[in-house]
From TrEMBL:
It comes from Aquibacillus koreensis. It is a multi-pass membrane protein. PROSITE patterns: RCK_N. Residues 114-239 form the RCK N-terminal domain. Pfam families: Ion_trans_2, TrkA_N. One of its GO terms (cellular component) is plasma membrane. This is Potassium channel family protein. It is found in: Cell membrane. The chain crosses the membrane at residues 15-37, 49-67, 73-91.
Length: 333
C-alpha cells in the first residue's frame, strides 16, 4: 500500500521533477554498485557516485575507471541507460523552455506577481506608456490584457501578456487581479464611441468587483458616460476626446508662429506630477509663499487639493491649512 502511494505521488509530480529524480536515483544506484564491486578502486561511495555522473553524462574525465570485467559491464549499462536519461532530461528542459515562451507569447500563462499594473488594450497609448516606463527605468511589473492580439513576443516586450476579454473573471484571475495595484483601461479604437465607453465601464465594474482596493484609470470618449464610469468604480476618468479637441482648437486659432502645445508637451515629457501633503511649517502660509519655497527645490507648484477639491492656479493670497495636498511638477528622477 505504501509503495502504491509512493508511485501515485511520483507520477503526479511535474515531468521535469520526475526526470530529475530518475536521473539522480540511477546515478546513485550505479555509484553504489561500482563501489561494492570494486571497493579498492572506489574506496568511498561518493567516488562511485562521482564516476557515475561523469560517465553517465558522457563527460568522461578518466580519473576513475573500472578495472574488473564486471565493473566494465556495469559501465556499459550506465552509458546505455544513464547517458540516454541525461540526454532526454536536457532535451526535455529545452523543449519545456521553448514551449513556455510560446505560451507566454500567446497569452496563456497566469501571472504570479504582485503590486503590478494592468493595461487593458494594446494600442498606441499603451505602447507609449510601456516605452516611457521602460526608458525611465521605473521598476513596475506590467500585465497586458487584450483579446485582439494572436501573440505578443515575450522576448521583445517587458509586459506579461494575457489574451482575453478583461471583463471576464477568468481572464482577470489570470492577470492576478486581486494582487494588482493599478489598472489602466484604454478605449477600444475598433468600436464606436458609445459602445467603446460601455465596454470600458463594464470592464471597470468587473475589475472593481474582483479587487475593491484597485486604483483604476478609465478612458472615456463621450462626456455623458463620465458619471457612469465614476459610479462603476473608476478612481480617475480621462476624457481624451475633450483634451484632443482643445488641442485642435488652439492649433487652428493661434496667432503666434510658436506652437505652444508642442512646447508644453515636450516640457511635460521631462516632468512628472507629484502630490505632497502640506508640511507643518507651511500651515498658515499663502500659496505664493509656499510656491516660492518649493521653486528653490525644483518643484513647480501648480495647484492644491483642499477638502477633496482640486484647485489649479489658485489665488496667491489663499491661506493653506493642515491636510491640504500640494500638486506640482518635478523633474524625472
Amino acid at each position: 500500500m505504501n509503495l502504491f502511494k509512493f508511485w501515485q505521488f511520483y507520477f503526479h509530480l511535474p515531468v521535469l521533477v520526475r526526470l530529475l529524480l530518475t536521473v539522480l536515483l540511477t546515478m546513485f544506484l550505479f555509484g553504489i554498485t561500482i563501489h561494492l564491486i570494486e571497493p579498492n578502486h572506489f574506496p568511498h561511495i561518493f567516488d562511485g557516485i562521482w564516476w557515475a555522473f561523469v560517465t553517465g553524462s558522457t563527460v568522461g574525465y578518466g580519473d576513475y575507471v573500472p578495472l574488473s570485467t564486471l565493473g566494465k559491464v556495469i559501465a556499459i549499462l550506465l552509458i546505455l541507460t544513464g547517458g540516454g536519461l541525461v540526454t532526454f532530461y536536457m532535451a526535455t528542459i529545452s523543449a519545456s523552455t521553448i514551449n513556455h515562451e510560446n505560451e507566454l507569447s500567446k497569452g496563456s500563462i497566469t501571472f504570479k506577481g504582485k503590486n503590478h499594473i494592468i493595461f487593458v488594450g494594446w494600442n498606441e497609448r499603451t505602447k507609449q506608456l510601456v516605452k516611457m516606463i521602460t526608458e525611465r527605468d521605473i521598476r513596475e511589473q506590467i500585465v497586458l490584457i487584450d483579446k485582439t492580439l494572436s501573440n505578443l513576443p515575450y522576448s521583445k516586450n517587458t509586459v506579461h501578456y494575457i489574451r482575453g476579454d478583461a471583463s471576464e473573471d477568468e481572464v482577470l484571475e489570470k492577470a492576478n487581479i486581486k494582487e494588482a495595484k493599478y489598472a489602466i483601461i484604454t478605449s477600444d479604437p475598433s468600436k464606436q464611441e458609445r459602445q467603446a465607453d460601455q465596454t470600458t465601464i463594464l470592464t471597470t465594474v468587473a475589475m472593481k468587483g474582483n479587487n475593491p482596493d484597485l486604483y483604476i484609470v478609465s478612458e472615456i470618449l463621450t462626456k455623458e458616460q463620465v458619471t457612469n464610469a465614476t459610479r462603476a468604480g473608476a478612481n480617475t476618468v480621462i476624457r481624451s476626446n475633450d483634451f484632443m479637441s482643445t488641442l485642435f482648437f488652439h492649433e487652428l486659432f493661434r496667432d503666434t508662429p510658436v506652437k505652444p502645445f508642442d512646447v508644453l508637451l515636450e516640457v511635460l515629457s521631462s516632468q512628472q506630477f507629484e502630490q505632497l501633503l502640506l508640511p507643518n511649517e507651511m500651515v498658515g502660509k499663502t500659496f505664493l509663499e509656499c510656491s516660492d519655497h518649493y521653486v528653490a527645490k525644483d518643484f513647480l507648484l501648480i495647484g492644491m487639493i483642499n477638502e477633496e477639491e482640486l484647485k489649479l492656479n489658485p489665488s496667491f493670497d489663499i491661506k493653506l491649512k493642515s491636510g491640504d495636498i500640494l500638486v506640482g511638477l518635478s523633474k524625472l528622477k
